[in-house]
Each structure stands twice: as C-alpha cells, then as structure tokens.
C-alpha cells in the first residue's frame, strides 16, 4: 500500500429481515406520543360525534332510544378514518423535510419508512377504536356479539384500517406539502356520511341511494353492524372484504410507484 494511501472504507451490511421496518415502526410510534394533540383529537372527535348523534340527534332520528346501537358501527369507521388521516401528513412531512434522502444513504430499505408509518397507524387506530367502543357501551350501546364475532370484527377492522392507512400514505406521497395532504385526505373522511353509517340508505333521496349502497363504506359498516348486533348482512361481508383488499392493493401499488418516482429523483 502506498505510504499516503488511505484504507478503503468497508460498507456497512444492509439490515436483514424486518429490522428496518421494526426501527421505523418504533420511530413512528415515538412521533405519535410526542404529537399528543393529534392522537387525542383522533379519539376525541369520533367520541364527540357519537355523543352528538346519540344525545342531540338520536331522539329525532329514533325516538325509541335505540339509535346508539345503530350509530356505533359508523362511528368506529369514522374513528379509523380520523386516525389514519394523520399518516398522510406524516409521510408528506418526511418527503418535504429531506429525511428520505438520509435514509437512502443508509444500508436499509428506504421504503421501510412507509411501512413504519402504516403499522404504527394501525396500532394507534386499534387502541382508539377500542376506546370508542368502550365509550359507546357507557352511553348505552349493547352488542350481542359472540367471541367468534369479536374475533371476526377485529380482523375486519384491522383490514380496513390497514387499507385506509396505506391509501392515506399514498396521498401523503402524492401531495406537495403536509397542508395539501391534510386537505386531500379530509375529502375521504366524508365517505361515512354518504353511506348507511348514520342513517339507512332507504331514507336518502332516490338519486343518492345507488351511490350510498355501492360505495365501500356501506358493506363494511353493515358487516360490522351484523357482527356486533346479529343483524342479517346478506352478501355484505364478502363485499366488505373485497373492497378492503382492492383499496389495499391499489394503495400499495400506487404508493410504491410514487415513492420510487419521488424519492428516486431526490
């Protein structure tokens, strides 16, 4: 070796297995704990919405007092939407701050940052959903679900949260700023109001009924209602799972394409 030559640096080995994903999940969870306001609002807004529909509007919608049983399944999906929407802002902020550039120089899969955001969001939302169901019980919600129904309910809610969170992550990649991501994601939060989440589809104007009946939220909320209260869902569970899988597949493909396109040119 020449006297003034410096030794060639040895590149660090890439992280194997799911190590990178685990690191980014921990990072996202720590960010969630530091951003306590967003986590609190993701829980408080659906709870306040449930209390408003139950105590303020419930008597007019259903004078018998049974409206709480009808509305809680819709509130569950609304809660999941509020919680997942913050993922779009977190992803957009990572893209704008330049942290993705640093991750790309490290011996890990930079795309694991998206997985971290999504998994952390699913965990946050499952906790928030459990809290919302608990508050519903306190205000009069009386589910009749069996242990098997609760397991099926947990699986469906997890699948829905996973699908909607990946979709919000892709929106965060597509948006030019965290503010834009927040605005685009907010549009999706209106879907439960155009479904059977809060009122039966048959009570809507005739021109709106086909839209409400054939959009993703209606079969999902009817399946949740069937599992919790024993109502007849017909073929809705199959449509619910199909919609979740389609949304998840489209969001994963779209998000991966956007990440390669945007992060690759940084």
Automatic annotation (TrEMBL):
Give the stretches traversing the membrane. 39-58, 70-92, 113-138, 150-171, 183-202, 238-259
Residues forming the ABC transmembrane type-2 domain are 37-262
Compartments it resides in: Cell membrane; Membrane
Query: What InterPro entries has UniProt attached to this entry?
Result: ABC2_TM, ABC2_TM_bact-type, ABC_2_transport, Nod_factor_ABC_transporter
Does the keyword section mention Aminoacyl-tRNA synthetase? no
User: What is the protein's membrane topology class?
Assistant: Multi-pass membrane protein
Residue ranges the record marks as coiled coil: none
Q: Which UniProt keywords apply?
A: Antibiotic resistance, Cell membrane, Membrane, Transmembrane, Transmembrane helix, Transport
Highest taxon of the source? Bacteria
Q: What is its main location?
A: membrane
Q: Name the Pfam families on file.
A: ABC2_membrane
**Family per record:** Belongs to the ABC-2 integral membrane protein family.
Under the heading PANTHER family, the entry gives: NODULATION PROTEIN J
What is the protein's given name?
Answer: Transport permease protein
């Amino acid at each position: 070796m020449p006297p003034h030559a410096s030794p060639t640096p040895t590149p660090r080995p890439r992280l194997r297995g799911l190590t990178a994903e685990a690191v980014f999940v921990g990072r996202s969870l720590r960010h969630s704990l530091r951003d306590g306001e967003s986590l609190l609002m993701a829980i408080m807004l659906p709870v306040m919405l449930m209390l408003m529909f139950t105590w303020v509007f419930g008597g007019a919608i259903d004078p018998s007092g049974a409206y709480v049983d009808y509305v809680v399944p819709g509130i569950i999906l609304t809660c999941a939407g509020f919680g997942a929407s913050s993922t779009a802002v977190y992803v957009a902020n990572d893209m704008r701050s330049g942290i993705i550039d640093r991750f790309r120089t490290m011996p890990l899969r930079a795309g694991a940052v998206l997985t971290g955001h999504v998994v952390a969001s699913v965990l946050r939302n499952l906790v928030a959903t459990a809290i919302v169901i608990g508050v519903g019980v306190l205000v009069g919600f009386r589910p009749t679900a069996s242990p098997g129904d609760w397991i099926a309910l947990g699986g469906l809610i997890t699948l829905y949260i996973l699908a909607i969170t990946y979709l919000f992550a892709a929106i965060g990649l597509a948006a030019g700023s965290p503010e834009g991501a927040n605005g685009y994601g907010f549009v999706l939060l209106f879907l439960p109001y155009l479904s059977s989440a809060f009122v039966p589809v048959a009570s809507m104007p005739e021109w709106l009924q086909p839209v409400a009946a054939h959009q993703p939220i209606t079969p999902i909320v009817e399946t949740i209602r069937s599992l919790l209260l024993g109502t007849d869902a017909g073929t809705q569970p199959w449509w619910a799972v199909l919609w979740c899988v389609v949304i998840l597949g489209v969001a994963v493909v779209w998000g991966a394409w956007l990440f390669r396109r945007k992060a690759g040119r940084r």
